[in-house]
Design a protein that fits this description.
Chain B: GO terms for molecular function: ATP binding; ATP hydrolysis activity. The structure holds two protein chains of two kinds. Chain A is mainly alpha-helical. Chain A is built from 14 helices and four strands. In chain B, the strands form six sheets. Chain B has a six-stranded mixed beta sheet, with helices on both faces. Chain B has a six-stranded mixed beta sheet with strand order 18-21-22-15-23-24, sandwiched between helices. In chain B, strand 16 (315-320) and strand 17 (323-324) form a beta hairpin. Mean pLDDT of chain B is 86; it is low at 502-508. Classes of the chains: A mainly alpha, B alpha/beta.
C-alpha cells in the first residue's frame, strides 16, 4: 500500500517529533554540563519560568494558525499587572466619597475582563475595520503600554501582599502558592494547555481555526463563521496575557508598568519553534509547549553554565532559524510522501 | 487573400499535460498581414496552442518554424525577442502602478543604466493611448480604470513591444461596443503594416467580421482551417462541436417533483454602472438538472455567489421549498439546504493543507458534535463512507487534499457539499480541470443525485456538456437570461443566445 521506503518513514517520524528530540537534547546536554540542573528544585524554578512564556505562546499559537499575529500580548501583560496592582492597593474610587474594594476573586475576574477586552478590540479592528493583524495589534501594543504607564505615572505599585479585611490576602497565592508540591501557576498552565489542546483537536471551533488559516475564502464558503473565529482567537490570546499579568503581579507582589516588554517575541518564538507555520493553517498546542520548554531550558541552563546572557540571545536566534529550516524540510518530505501514496492509489 | 505570407507554422504539435493531451498533432499556419481567427470550445486547446506560440509552454512533440527555420522558445522573453506579443485573457497588470509603468513593466527605459526615464515613458504611453483613441492620462493608477480600459492598456503593452505577431486572447470580453470598434481599427492598421494577428474569441459574429482566416479546434485537433470567405456561423458551429456528441446517457427516467428552488429578479450592480447579474429569475424542481450555459463573464458565477450570500449588495429574492431565503450568512444558507461547488477548487473549494477527512466534513461538523465535543471516530467513519460512495480513490483520508488529482479533489468538494444534506446543489463548472474519466464519473454522480430527488443547477461553458446533462437549458449573456431550451436543443440556437452582441442586449 505505501509507496515509501522504511528509511523515508523513519526520517519523517524523526522530523515530526523534532521538537521533542530538541527538548531531549537540551535536557541531556545540560544534565551533563550543569551539575545542579537535574534537581527537583531546579525543575520547579525552570517550569515557573517556562510557564509565563507558555501561556502567551498558547494564545499566540491559535492566532498564528488563523494566519494572524498578536503583538499586543506583552503590553496586555503589563496593563493587566497594573490593573491588578491598582485594585489591590487603591480599589475603585466612585467619586462619591467612598471607595469600592474587591476581594481576590473579583480582582481576578476584572483583570481577566481587561485582557479579554483588549483582545476583543484587536478582533474588532481586524474583522470589522479590516486592519491588518500586524498593524492592529501594533497599535494596541502602544495603547495598552501607554495606559499601563499612565495608571501609575510610570511608578511601581509596591507591597501587593493584600490584607485579610479586604479579602485580598490570598492574592500572593496566584504566583507563589503550591498545590501538591507543584506551583499553582503550573497547575494553571496545565489546565489552560489541556483546554487549548482539546479545543484545537476535538471541537468544531478548533477545526474552524485551522480552516480559516488554511484558506479563509474556502472556509467562508464552507459555512465557517470566519469573523467569529478571529474574534475568539484574539480574545483568547488576551485571556492568556491577562493570566500572565496577574501571575507576575502576584509573584513579585508589585507591579511595574514595563512588565511584559518583548514577551510577544518570546511567545512567537515558542510557537514557531513548536512547528506553528507563520503562514497559517498549521501548528499544535503540544508543539508550542515543548517549544516554550526548549527556549526556557536553554536560557536557564546556559545561565547555570555561566554563559553570558548576550550569547544566550544569539543562541536563541540560531535555534529558532534552525527549527524553521527543519520545519520546511519536513513539510516538503511529507507532501512528497503523500503525493506518492495518492498517485499509487489513483492507479 | 492568398498573398499573405506564412510567418509561423506548427507541424505535428502535441502537448501533453499530466492526465490529458491538450494538443493532438496540430498543424497551424499563421499568416502575416492578416487576422488569423482561432475558435473552439473551452478546453479545445486554443489557449495551449497560443501559449506554445508565445513561449509560455513548449511542445511535447512537433516543431515550430518561422521563415522555414525551426525555432524553440524556452520562455516568453525568447518569443518576445522573435517579435511575438500576447495579450492574455486574464489581465496581467499591476493595479498599484500607473498606466505608463504598466506598459513598460520589465523593460523600463533607463537613463544611463540608472534611473527610469519617466518623461520618455510618459510620452510613449501617451502616444499609445492616442493611437488607441483613449483619453487616459498615463499617470493614472491602473486600478482606477474600468476593466475595459485596463484591457486596452494590456493591448497597448503588447503594441509597445513592436510585435510582428500579436496574439489577442478574447480581447473584447470586457470592452464596450465603441471600444471594440476602436480595437478593430487598430487591428486593421496593424495588418496593413504586415503584422500577423491571432484572434481568439467566442463571439462568432465578431470573428466573421474581423477575420481573414479561420482555424477551428476541437479536443486538441484542428477540425477546420480555411480562408474566411464563405464561412458562416453554422459552419463554425459544426466544426466546433462536430456531428456526433459526447453522450452521458440518462439511466433513469426523469422524475421531477415540486419546485425546490426559485430566484426572483436577482440583480447585482456592477461598480461603475450596469449590472453584472441583471434581473435573473429561474426555478429548479426536485430531481431536475438545469444547465446554465454562457460564456465567461456572462455573470453566471456571480449569480451563484449571490445565492451563497457572497454579495451583500445584490437585490432580489430566493426561495427554498417555496419559503423565502432571508438568512444573511453562508452557514445558515447551508442549513437551509443550499450547497455550492465553486468553480475554483483551489481558491474556494478546499483547504489545501488540511487532510481529505477534514475537508470533506468541514461544512457538516455539526453532524458529529454534541454540545461542543467533536466525535472524531464518527467523523472518520462518515468521511470514509462518503469516500466510498463517491468512489474517490485515495490511499489515506489523513493525507492532505492537495496530494490528490484534480478529479478526486473535485469529488472531495462534492462530498463536502453532499454531507450537509442539501436540497439544491449549485455547481460552477463541475468538470473544469479534470480528465475525461473523472468527468464521466462526476456526471454519473450528478445524474444519480438528481434521480435521488436533488435539484441541481450547474454552470458550464461547454456546449456538449450542457446538452448532454441538462433536463432544461438556460442561457445567460451580459448578466441576463437570454434563452430557455429543452435539453436536446439545437446547438446553434444555444450559441446564438449566448453570443453577447450589443444589439441583442439592447433589444432584450
Amino acid at each position: 500500500m505505501t509507496a515509501t521506503s522504511p528509511a523515508t518513514n523513519a526520517l519523517l517520524l524523526l522530523l515530526r517529533l523534532r521538537t521533542f528530540v530538541a527538548l531531549f537534547l537540551v535536557l541531556a546536554f545540560f544534565s551533563v554540563m550543569a551539575p545542579n540542573f537535574l534537581t527537583t528544585a531546579n525543575a520547579v524554578i525552570v517550569s515557573k519560568h517556562v510557564a509565563l512564556n507558555a501561556f502567551l505562546a498558547i494564545g499566540m499559537t491559535f492566532v498564528i494558525i488563523t494566519g494572524g499575529i498578536d503583538l499586543s500580548v506583552g503590553s496586555i501583560v503589563g496593563l493587566c499587572a497594573m490593573v491588578a496592582g491598582w485594585l489591590v492597593l487603591n480599589g475603585v474610587d466612585t467619586g462619591m466619597g467612598y471607595t469600592i474594594w474587591f476581594n481576590t476573586y473579583e480582582i481576578v475576574g476584572l483583570v481577566m475582563l481587561v485582557g479579554v477586552g483588549v483582545g476583543l478590540i484587536n478582533g474588532i479592528l481586524i474583522t470589522r475595520l479590516n486592519v491588518a493583524p500586524f498593524i492592529a495589534t501594533l497599535g494596541t501594543l502602544y495603547i495598552a503600554r501607554g495606559a499601563a504607564l499612565l495608571s501609575s505615572g510610570g511608578r511601581t505599585f509596591p507591597n501587593l501582599n493584600g490584607t485579610e479585611e479586604m479579602g485580598t490576602a490570598s492574592f500572593p497565592f496566584i504566583g507563589t502558592g503550591t498545590i501538591l508540591g507543584l506551583p499553582f501557576m503550573v497547575w494553571l498552565l496545565i489546565a489552560v494547555a489541556v483546554g487549548a489542546h482539546y479545543i484545537s483537536r476535538r471541537t468544531p471551533l478548533g477545526r474552524h481555526i485551522y480552516a480559516v488559516g488554511g484558506n479563509e475564502r474556502g472556509a467562508a464558503l464552507s459555512g465557517v463563521k470566519v469573523n467569529r473565529i478571529k474574534l475568539f482567537v484574539y480574545m483568547f490570546s488576551g485571556f492568556c496575557a491577562a493570566l500572565v499579568g496577574l501571575i507576575i503581579a502576584s509573584q513579585l507582589q508589585a507591579s511595574h508598568p514595563a512588565t511584559g516588554e518583548t514577551f510577544e517575541l518570546n511567545a512567537i518564538a515558542a510557537a514557531v519553534l513548536g512547528g506553528t507555520s507563520m503562514s497559517g493553517g498549521r501548528g499544535r498546542i503540544t508543539g508550542t509547549i515543548v517549544g516554550a520548554f526548549v527556549i526556557g531550558i536553554l536560557s536557564d541552563g546556559l545561565i547555570m553554565m555561566g554563559v553570558s546572557s548576550f550569547w544566550q540571545t544569539v543562541i536563541k536566534g540560531i535555534v529558532i532559524i534552525v527549527a524553521v529550516v527543519i520545519d520546511q524540510a519536513q513539510s516538503r518530505l511529507q507532501a512528497r510522501v503523500a503525493l506518492a501514496q495518492e498517485a499509487a492509489a489513483a492507479r | 487573400m492568398s498573398d499573405h505570407p506564412i510567418g509561423l507554422t506548427i507541424r505535428g504539435g502535441v502537448k501533453v499535460y499530466p492526465g490529458t493531451r491538450a494538443l493532438k498533432g496540430v498543424d497551424f499556419d499563421l499568416r502575416m498581414g492578416a487576422v488569423n481567427v482561432l475558435v473552439g470550445e473551452n478546453g479545445a486547446g486554443k489557449s495551449t496552442l497560443m501559449k506554445v506560440i508565445a513561449g509560455v509552454e513548449s511542445l511535447t512533440e512537433g516543431r515550430v518554424e518561422m521563415g522555414s527555420q525551426p525555432v524553440h522558445f524556452r520562455n516568453k522573453s525568447d518569443a518576445v525577442a522573435h517579435g511575438i506579443g500576447i495579450v492574455f485573457q486574464e489581465l496581467n497588470l499591476f493595479p498599484n502602478l500607473s498606466v505608463a509603468e504598466n506598459i513598460f513593466i520589465g523593460r523600463e527605459p533607463v537613463r544611463g543604466g540608472v534611473d527610469i526615464d519617466t518623461a520618455h515613458q510618459y510620452k510613449a504611453a501617451a502616444a499609445l493611448m492616442a493611437r488607441l483613441e483613449q483619453d487616459i492620462d498615463p499617470d493614472t493608477p491602473l486600478g482606477h480604470l474600468r476593466v475595459g480600459q485596463q484591457q486596452i492598456v494590456e493591448i497597448a503593452k503588447a503594441l509597445a513591444q513592436d510585435a510582428r505577431i500579436l496574439i489577442l486572447d478574447e480581447p473584447t470580453s470586457a470592452l464596450s461596443a465603441a471600444e471594440v470598434q476602436v480595437l478593430f481599427r487598430v487591428i486593421r492598421d496593424l495588418t496593413a503594416q504586415g503584422v500577423g494577428i491571432v484572434y481568439i474569441s467566442h463571439r462568432l459574429d465578431e470573428l466573421i467580421h474581423i477575420g481573414d482566416y479561420i482555424t477551428v479546434l476541437r479536443d486538441g485537433v484542428i477540425t477546420g482551417a480555411r480562408s474566411m470567405e464563405g464561412v458562416d456561423i453554422p459552419w463554425i458551429v459544426r466544426a466546433m462541436i462536430g456531428e456526433g456528441s459526447k453522450e452521458f446517457p440518462r439511466t433513469e427516467p426523469p422524475n421531477f417533483g415540486d419546485e425546490v428552488f426559485r430566484a426572483e429578479s436577482v440583480t447585482l450592480p456592477r461598480a461603475g454602472g450596469g449590472n453584472t447579474v441583471d434581473h435573473v429569475s429561474l426555478s429548479v424542481r426536485k430531481g431536475e438538472i438545469v444547465g446554465l450555459y454562457g460564456l465567461m463573464g456572462a455573470g453566471r458565477t456571480e449569480f451563484l455567489e449571490c445565492i451563497m450570500a457572497q454579495h451583500p449588495h445584490s437585490r432580489g429574492q430566493f426561495f427554498v421549498d417555496g419559503k423565502p431565503l432571508t438568512e444573511p450568512d453562508v452557514a445558515s444558507r447551508i442549513g437551509r439546504g443550499i450547497a455550492l461547488i465553486p468553480e475554483d477548487r483551489k481558491r474556494d473549494g478546499l483547504v489545501q493543507i488540511m487532510s481529505i477527512r477534514e475537508n470533506i466534513t468541514l461544512s457538516a461538523l455539526g453532524r458529529f458534535t454534541r454540545l461542543f465535543h467533536l466525535n472524531l471516530r464518527g467523523e472518520a467513519a462518515t468521511a470514509l463512507d462518503f469516500v466510498k460512495r463517491l468512489t474517490i480513490k485515495i490511499a489515506s483520508p489523513e493525507n492532505p487534499v492537495s496530494s490528490l488529482s484534480g478529479g478526486n479533489q473535485q469529488k472531495v468538494v462534492i462530498g463536502k457539499a453532499l454531507m450537509t444534506g442539501p436540497k439544491i446543489l449549485l455547481m460552477d463548472e463541475p468538470s473544469r480541470g479534470i480528465d475525461i474519466g473523472a468527468k464521466a464519473e462526476v456526471f454519473r454522480t450528478m445524474r444519480k443525485l438528481a434521480a435521488d430527488g436533488l435539484g441541481i443547477l450547474f454552470v458550464t461553458s461547454d456546449l456538449d456538456e450542457v446538452r448532454a446533462l441538462s433536463d432544461r437549458i438556460l442561457v445567460m449573456a451580459n448578466g441576463r437570461i437570454t434563452g430557455e431550451f429543452p435539453g436536446d436543443a439545437d446547438a446553434a440556437a444555444i450559441i446564438g443566445a449566448a453570443s453577447p452582441s450589443t444589439q441583442r442586449s439592447q433589444a432584450a
